[in-house]
Structure formats: C-alpha cells, structure tokens
Amino acid sequence: MEGGVPEADVSAFRECLSLSWKNPYVLRLAFSAGIGGFLFGYDTGVISGALLYIRDDFKAVDRQTWLQEAIVSTALAGAIIGASVGGWINDRFGRKKAIILADALFFIGSVIMAAAINPAILIVGRVFVGLGVGMASMASPLYISEASPTRVRGALVSLNGFLITGGQFLSYVINLAFTNAPGTWRWMLGVAAVPALTQIVLMLMLPESPRWLFRKGKEEEAKEILRKIYPPQDVEDEIIALKESVEMESKDDSSSNKVSIIKLLKTKTVRRGLYAGVGLQIFQQFVGINTVMYYSPTIVQLAGFASNKTALLLSLVTAGINAFGSILSIYFIDKTGRKKLLLFSLSGVIVSLVVLTVVFHQTTTHSPMVSEIESSKFNNTCPDYRTALDAAQWDCMKCLKASPECGFCASAGNKLLPGACLISNDTTEDQCQKEQSRQWYTRGCPSKNGWLALIGLSLYILFFSPGMGTVPWVVNSEIYPLRYRGICGGIASTSNWISNLIVAQSFLSLTDAIGTSYTFMIFIFVTVAAIVFVIVFVPETKGLPIEEVENMLERRTLNFKFWQRNSGSDQALTQKNVSF
C-alpha cells in the first residue's frame, strides 16, 4: 500500500489550493496535462455554434440532417479509434508521448477544418480532431492521477474536468466573438490549433509519469519526480510501496504486453474495475449530456428563440454553469466521495429532464397557428400549405415539418399570434425580417414558455457537471491495477466515445421522428437505470492511495447500502452484501 489511507475531507480541497505556493510543480503538471481536457471541451462546444454557420455556407448541410450529424459524429468515430489505440500507446510509449501525439493530431485537424472548401474536407478534419481528442481524453486524467499526491488526487483529476468545461465555455465565447467576422465558422474551428500547439511545447518540458517509469525499470528517474511531488516525510513510503507493487506485478505472468480481453476478465480486480469504469462512461453519455453540449444552440432554437446569435448567447450561459459545476466537483469530490456525488448528480438530472420533457411537449402542442392572410402577404407560400385541405388547422409545427422545407414567419408585434408559412430559403428569411418585429423560425416555434426550457437546461448542467461530468474520469484514472491501467483506461474511454457517437448520431433524428419531449423522456429512463448501476457496481475510492484501490476491489462485494464505505474488512459485520 502506498503510504497510509488519509481521510479525505474539506481540508483536501484547501490543501489542493495551497499547492499554488507550497508545491507549484504539482499544479504545473496538472494544468499542463489538463490542456488535453481543455481541447476535449473546446471541440465539444465549438461545433455546436459553428454548425449554425456551416449550415448557412453549405446548403446541403442545412437541408440534410444526416450531414449535420455526420459533421458532429465523424469526430466521435475518430475519438473511438484514438481512445482504443490510446490505451496501448500509453502503456507502450508512456503518458507524455501519448498526449503530445494527441496534440499533433488535433493541430492537423484544426488546420484542415479551417481551410475546408466543402463538407467532405470538413469531415476529414473532424476525423483528425477526433483521433486527438479520443487519445487525450484518457491520457490526460491518467497522467494527472499518477503524478498527484493521494490526498488531492481526486481534486486534481477533477481539475481536468474543469478544463473540459472551461474549454466548452471559451468555445461559446469564441463563437460569439466571430459571429460577425468573415469566415465565422472557419475561425471558430481553426483557433483550436493554438492550445494544441501550446500543450506540445509545455509537455516537452515535463517529465513522464513516475508510475509508468517505475513500471519500465527507470527507478532513479521516477524517484526524482516523486521527491518533487510528495512532502519529504511521505516520499520514501511512497517509493517503497510503489517499488513493492511493481515487483509483485513483475512476478505475474499476465503483463500488460501480453494482455488479452479474456485475461482481463479472468482477473477479479480488473473485471470489477471494468464493471464500474466502463459502466460509468457509458451512462455518462446515455443520460444525454453531449446532446445538450453539441446541440445546445439548436435546442435553444427548438425552444422558440429564433436568431443564431441569441441561441449562441443563451448557450454561453449554460456553458458557464457547466464550468461552475466542475468547480463544485473539485471542492466536493474528496469531501463527500465519488459515489454520493454521482447519486446526487443523477437525481438532479432526473428532475431537470422532467422539466425539459414537460416544456418541450407544451411548446410543440401549443405553437401559433398559420394564418392564410399573413401567408398571402408573401409571394412564396409553402406549397404543402397552399394545397392542403386542412389548411385552417395548420400550426407552426406542422408548417416546419412540411416538404419541401418550409419556415414560419411570426406575426408582427406578437410572435404568439398566427403567422405565415413560407418556403424556407434566404430570400424568404430576408423578406420576413424586413419588418423589424417579425422573426423567422425553421427549427422551433415561438413559445411563451421557452424560458422554462432554458431553466431546465441550466438545471440539467448544474446537476450533471459536479458528478457525472467529472467522477467517471476520476474513477477510471484510479480504479485499475498499474499493469492494466493504460489498456483498461483505453477500453473505458472507447466505450465513452462509442456511446457518445450513438447519442450524437441519433439525437436530431430522434427529435425529428418522435419529438424533442419524448427524446428527453427516454433520457429519464436511462438516468434511473444509471442510479441503480451506481448503487450496485461502483465502489467508493475516496482517500484510498492508488495501489490500495486494487486491494479494495479484491475484497469488494456488491453494496446496496451506498452511504457506508465499502473498503474495510469489518464490512461483513455491518452490512449485507451479494458477491459478484
């Protein structure tokens, strides 16, 4: 066991803050590696705003939902490949080289996207960016975890989560900054090359993970780094414990170089770790977070806010709440523990999704009617509306679902009164907006309750971010034995990106097929399943040194009393458990 098992509480947060003057070296390691998380977050956020303007430049993208989903999801496909090979690269070549390679791929992808002349080239750039993001998503928290003192490990890995949300927030600021600039979306996507290049320079000046160095037999180099990380009174115990752990692993026939999925699943501690780690990554995506981040401007438009700029501005608020939530995680994760934070987070997500479901149902069922008089004021009335036998029953939502694509020009003065149903194109939009008080809708309809959708989105992110936003990455950075940490982290990250791809690829199609409200209702049922999963399968790792986590998993049984710590030998006397 590495050192003792300190009690992690609020003092751990204060200790994390004190590192800025007591041991700035540790913070330097964490921030430099955390730029990978920043890139992860920036790409997640920037594409949501850029997509609004890509649709304006490339009409094929505007007309075809599958192309919008392809621009988002090809990056996720690249991330799946990056995460799956990233585990092997981390174990074979080290955490540092994996992060540098991820940055190089991200840089290349950003340049390609900024210079794209058609959707196909844009998609190629998205694949490169995805490869980099997927690789960095597991390498950055792994590097931070292995280079952090035990007491503040959770807070420092949560710092990576904060940089993810900080990247998302900055992406919305960048989106707003370039709304009136020539080449809007090109600047939005190209700016990401700057932090990627910055991290390459910083990582070249930093050491490799000390635990990886020990594993590769470079003990003196590892000891030198550990002496810079740990206080003098703790460092020798850490070195001895880590050395003993590596010596034990070297006697094990199953090394990370000969690993197979069968061997992983036959190893009890690894299997139990994978249950928790992979499951958390899957549920992180299936409760719907990245539909909110990728498509938040679109969701805001679905709620009845028409202009691109307004949608981006309101999405900036949700991104700011996301960043604030990750700061709460840094404070609470070593105070309340990983598991309680997850359960609180998921409970709040359910409440928020109920609000979103109700609001979007009301918005779609009570949209303004279409007026024949209003429509006749324009020369390009929607063909389907003009020939419809039930034209008197048409409302805004029915107009938006017409073919060829039609839009709704809201009534002058009061957007909730009957408006015009017109063919959707730039000319029509300009004609509609000539009257200052008219607004043009193509994604959602005017609603008096649109602000409630914003409250629901804000609550969703505020509850999600401190728990489900950061804890899965923290747990996956600390729950696996050292010899399997890279490969298992890669498996977990790959499952995250596959889940992300499924959700992102299907969200707009689902909203078209069954409506936004029923789509959010599906997320409610998934979140309930996630709560059950956390209670049964996820162990508490608060305050445990990394090497002690393996011993805890060896002893662990399924625990239905989640408020009691599941790591002590006296557990059998205090609670009933079911072995697995």
How would you describe what is shown here?
- It is a single chain.
- By secondary structure, the protein is an all-alpha fold.
- The protein has 3 domains: 10-206, Growth Hormone, Chain: A (Up-down Bundle); 256-367 and 448-553, MFS general substrate transporter like domains (Growth Hormone, Chain: A, Up-down Bundle), CATH 1.20.1250; 368-446, no CATH class.
- The chain is built from 27 helices and 5 strands.
- A 3-stranded antiparallel sheet has the order 2-1-3. Strands 4-5 form a two-stranded antiparallel ribbon.
- The longest helix is centred in the N-terminal third of the chain and has 34 residues, at 24-57.
- The two termini are 24 Å apart.
- The model is unreliable at 1-11 and 565-580 (pLDDT under 50).
Give the SSE layout.
Layout: H1 10-22, H2 24-57, H3 59-63, H4 65-93, H5 95-114, H6 119-146, H7 153-177, H8 184-190, H9 193-204, H10 210-215, H11 219-229, H12 232-250, H13 261-266, H14 268-286, H15 289-302, H16 308-332, H17 338-365, H18 372-375, H19 383-387, H20 396-400, E1 406-409, E2 420-423, H21 426-432, E3 440-441, H22 450-464, H23 471-478, H24 485-514, H25 516-537, H26 546-555, E4 558-559, H27 571-574, E5 577-578
Antiparallel strand pairs: 1-2, 1-3, 4-5
Helix pairs in contact: 1-2, 2-6, 2-7, 2-8, 2-9, 2-15, 4-5, 4-6, 4-24, 5-6, 5-8, 5-9, 6-7, 6-23, 6-24, 7-16, 7-23, 11-12, 14-23, 14-24, 14-25, 14-26, 15-16, 16-22, 17-22, 17-25, 24-25
